[in-house]
Design brief:
The relative contact order is 0.16. The chain is built from 6 helices and 9 strands; from the N terminus they run E-H-H-H-E-E-H-E-E-E-H-E-H-E-E. Helix content is 34%, strand content 29%. The protein has helices spanning 10-22, 30-36, 45-54, 82-91, 123-135, 151-160; strands at 2-6, 58-62, 65-73, 95-96, 99-100, 106-114, 141-147, 163-169, 174-181. By secondary structure, it is of the alpha+beta class.
C-alpha cells in the first residue's frame, strides 16, 4: 500500500538522492528517455537537506521505501539552490492572468520522479494531489519547467491540470514553463 506524506527523516532524503541519481538524463539510455522520461538536475543529499530545512517535499512510500518524490522549491531556496535562482531570473518577464508571474503566490516543483518499479500506478497524480492538500493554503500556483523532449512528463503534467504559459531555450535544453492553478 502506498502512502503520500512529507519528508520527515534523513533516510528518506538519502533515498530521494539515490533515486534522483538513477534517473538523470545523463545516466538513462536514449530509449528510456523517450519512453519513461528523465530528470535534469541531480539532487545530492546536502542540497536536499538544505531545501528540506526551508520546506519539506512530498514523497510516496511503500513501507519504508520511497517510491517517488516531488521536491518542493520555494523562492527562499535560491540561496541554497543556484539553478533555482537562474530559473527565477528567467521568469522575471513572464505574466499569468495579466499579472507578472512572480506577483502571484507561487512555489516551484524542484523535480518529480517515480521509481521504475512503481510507475504506471497513479503515483504521479497522488504526489501532486498531496502537494495541493499541503500547500494550497499558502500558494495559488505551482510552477515548473519541463524539457520539451520529455514527452511523458509533459503529458502527465497536462493530465494533472498544468498549462503551458511559455517556452524558452537555455544552455541545457528547450523548456515549457507550466503552471497549475490551485482552485480553492
Amino acid at each position: 500500500m502506498y502512502q503520500a506524506c512529507l519528508v520527515s527523516r534523513k533516510e528518506e532524503l538519502e533515498q530521494i538522492a539515490a533515486l534522483s541519481a538513477q534517473n538523470l538524463r545523463t545516466v538513462v539510455s536514449a530509449t528510456e528517455k523517450k519512453e519513461q522520461g528523465f530528470i535534469t538536475w541531480e539532487y545530492p543529499l546536502a542540497l536536499l537537506e538544505a531545501m528540506h530545512a526551508i520546506a519539506p517535499s512530498v514523497i510516496i512510500k511503500q513501507g519504508e521505501q520511497v517510491a517517488g518524490f516531488a521536491l518542493t522549491a520555494t523562492q527562499e531556496m535560491t540561496r541554497v539552490h543556484p539553478e533555482l535562482a537562474v530559473m527565477l531570473q528567467n521568469l522575471q518577464t513572464l505574466t499569468y492572468n495579466n499579472q507578472p508571474i512572480l506577483a502571484h503566490r507561487l512555489y516551484m516543483m524542484g523535480q518529480i520522479c517515480i521509481d521504475k518499479a512503481h510507475r504506471g500506478k497513479g503515483l504521479f497524480d497522488l504526489l501532486y494531489q498531496h502537494h495541493k492538500a499541503v500547500y494550497s493554503k499558502q500558494y495559488d500556483l505551482l510552477l515548473t519547467e519541463i524539457s520539451t523532449s520529455n514527452h511523458r512528463s509533459l503529458r502527465a503534467h497536462q493530465r494533472v491540470g498544468f498549462e503551458t504559459i511559455h517556452t524558452y531555450h537555455d544552455h541545457l535544453d528547450e523548456w515549457d514553463v507550466v503552471v497549475w492553478k490551485f482552485e480553492v
